[in-house]
Design goal:
The structure is a homodimer of 163-residue chains. Chain A is mainly alpha-helical. Chain A contains 7 helices and 2 strands, in the order H-H-H-E-E-H-H-H-H. In chain A, helix 2 crosses helix 3. The longest helix of chain A is centred in the C-terminal third of the chain and has 18 residues. Chain A binds a DNA duplex (39 and 39 nucleotides) through helix 3.
Chain lengths: 163, 163
DNA sequence: GGAGTGATACTCGGATATCTGGTGTCCGAGTTTTCGCGG
DNA sequence: CCGCGAAAACTCGGACACCAGATATCCGAGTATCACTCC
């Protein structure tokens, strides 16, 4: 029940891309440098996000990554699932149907009660993340950082952005 | 974001122990045989549950495991956390404080907005699990299995239970 | 016959291998830029 | 001076090592039982 480190990287990168003007891109090198993380490994994560249709990549010079949609139309859930995989965390192996006292002909309820409880919890988790858009995060991040850092951030973006 | 296979084993074993009369125990061998899983590995999980104070173990002949408390006083959350560890799934490395445009003196909000969003989702997940007691699960499992399997289950328990 | 004692059998607990998936890295495919050359 | 073309530089995409944690297992510590012996 431990999610990968790339999730944090992804969310921060997405928040940074949300600050870009329409159509502009940032290369992976800049994204990695901005957060001081491994560029090679970040590329692996970005690849998944591109495959999931959340990011759009452009090759060659002046290439880079940008958001595929408006930040308000991208939920945190989509980002997390794109990186971590959309399979549920709890895997039910139906061990209730194993053991000495079950016969192949016995009919069980369609859903194991334990499985149902875990699914319900995971639905609550997903609903909470689905309710927050990348635009919300971007706005909150803007409020959470000091004004001077925000100003320097805008300058940094202008220096590294490609169109 | 994938939880271990032992979680399912644990929850089913706990539901089985909830069916035992007061003070009775079941050895790990019986628990493993009932679900047709590896006894050795199940012991590892049970050890963690005993260390967490959810199960009570007894050594020697007529020894085994029993619940430490009334099933109504044990939540699914406690069981899951005892097996998977109580650390949150999302780990915030504070990478917002890394990178080229941050200075050691800058003051940030106490909680990273991204971290806060993930924490909120995880709180929802935990709240959902905390709201379900082992007694609830036991009752639902009893309703979900055919009557003949339930009857054979009672017989099987009487054959393997120790007091 | 009853009590004490030793051996025994059974249980859990901790230490030890193995293996899958996350972590980290590298090189190749593709595209735009740019420089040089010819008209 | 302008257009064309080839080379170069920069980007992402996929394939390849490495390592931590989950998975799986075994052997030792502890205890209740049981049988045997002695009173």
């Amino acid at each position: 029940m431990k999610m990968g480190e790339g999730v944090e990287w992804t969310l921060h990168c997405a928040a940074l891309l949300a600050a870009l003007p329409e159509g502009a891109v940032l290369p992976a090198r800049a994204l990695a440098e901005f957060h001081d993380v491994s560029e090679s490994y970040l590329l692996k994560q970005l690849k998944g996000l591109t495959a999931a249709g959340l990011f759009v990549s452009t090759s060659g010079p002046k290439g880079g990554y940008r958001l595929a949609r408006d930040p308000a139309q991208i939920s945190l859930l989509e980002l997390v699932l794109a990186v971590e995989g959309d399979q549920p965390a709890f895997r039910c192996a139906e061990i209730r149907r194993c053991g000495p006292l079950v016969s192949p002909t016995t009919v069980y309820s369609p859903l194991c009660p334990i499985h149902a409880a875990m699914q319900q919890a995971e639905r609550a988790w997903r609903a909470s993340l689905a309710d927050i858009s990348l635009a919300d995060i971007f706005e909150r991040v803007g409020d959470s950082i000091p004004s001077d850092v925000g100003a320097r951030g805008k300058i940094w973006i202008q220096e590294h952005v490609r169109s």
